[in-house]
Amino acid sequence: LIARGLKVSVAAPKMEKNSKVYKELCKKGVNIYEIPLQRKSMNPFMDIYLLLTLIRLIKKIRPKYVLSYTIKPVVYGSIASRFSGVPNIYCLITGLGNIFIRDKKLKHKLLKSLVIKMYSMAFLRVNKVFFQNSDDQKLFEQLGVISKLNASIVVNGSGVDTLSFLPASFPKKITFLLIARLLKSKGIKEYANAAIIIKKKYPYVKFQLVGWYDGKSDSISKHELNGWISSGTIDYLGVIEDIKTVISNC
């Protein structure tokens, strides 16, 4: 976009000036703005503060296009864009999150109902909603969050920089790699169970895991992870910033 002569701005939380992401964005000529977004917070006053901050920021930047993704940026970013008169508003739904999985308890059901209503408000006047999963698109249609009349489309993921991630030959040893937050909802347990089954017949096969603890209630316990590591089921590599080498070795 910058190469085409467009101005690009990014609004995100915790944009520390000494971080690698901040420095790389600066090199590309991106304007960076830090916003008070607290991903796990349920405090309505903090969310109102976030909405007002976004409205002020959008009115200051005066963009022609706004693209937001993940729950809070989609909801509050879209509403703020509408209030600020942005002509082109787009949303990206990368996934539905735990809210749509954990709905057995009353508080989870109430939260899910609230999120559905907030999504419906956010999508009232957006130009297009991008989904990365056709099942998510169908679910939103069934819930009435979007209709078939709304402009929505399923895209094939966020894309890969093929100049940075180059093709590599297969390693001699068969190696599987899972990159994910250490949450049950991400399939960590299923991955470990699959490793146990396969390694009984093919003990030389490696199962690597890269990711970090999220601090959520459905996080994998450290005791459980240590058990997989000590038994040789999982080769846990921790948190890795440059993942290219690890991917090329699997």
TrEMBL record:
InterPro entries given in the database record: Glyco_trans_4-like_N
Every Glycosyltransferase subfamily 4-like N-terminal domain range: 3-133
This protein's name: Glycosyltransferase subfamily 4-like N-terminal domain-containing protein
Originating species: marine metagenome
Signal peptide extent: none
SUPFAM superfamilies, sorted: UDP-Glycosyltransferase/glycogen phosphorylase (SSF53756)
